[in-house]
Structures are given as structure tokens and as C-alpha cells.
Specification:
Elements lengths: L2 H12 L5 H8 L5 E5 L7 E4 L16 E3 H4 L4
Antiparallel strand pairs: 1-2, 1-3
Length: 75
């Protein structure tokens, strides 16, 4: 399991979805997309722009937030 896949699974779970596919089905066309910090040991989540690939993490203070669409390779 890649780091990216593990983060997507965690994000889907934290958002209350059964799996990553359900997350994408429900939220792929929204204006704000579930995003997660990509730093090891930090799993802070927030809803960010769909194309966000280096958003600011409020928990670890790094530009490490990525949207689910970026992580999943849709954008």
C-alpha cells in the first residue's frame, strides 16, 4: 500500500465514507474537497479547493495539505 493510498483510505474513513470510491462518487464535483495533510504522523483534514496540492496544515504548520482529487490522480 502506498503512502498516498493509505492517506486516501484514512481520509475516506475520517469523512465517514465506506471506501475511497464512495468518497469520490459523493464529493468529486463539489466546490470544496476533503483534503489531508501528507506529512508522516499528521492526519489533519479540512475541505479545500479541488486543485489544492500544497495547502497550509493548521496542525503541523507546513504546506502539506492535498485534496483527495490530487492524491487520487484526477487532477
Amino acid at each position: 500500500m502506498t503512502k498516498y493510498h493509505a492517506k486516501l483510505e484514512k481520509l475516506a474513513d475520517m469523512e465517514g465514507y465506506d471506501d475511497v470510491d464512495q468518497l469520490f462518487e459523493c464529493r468529486a464535483l463539489d466546490s470544496w474537497i476533503p483534503s489531508i495533510c501528507m506529512e508522516q504522523g499528521c492526519d489533519y483534514t479540512a475541505d479545500l479547493e479541488p486543485d489544492q496540492d500544497r495547502g497550509w496544515c493548521e496542525a503541523c504548520s507546513k504546506p502539506s495539505m492535498k485534496s483527495a482529487l490530487i492524491i487520487g490522480g484526477f487532477i
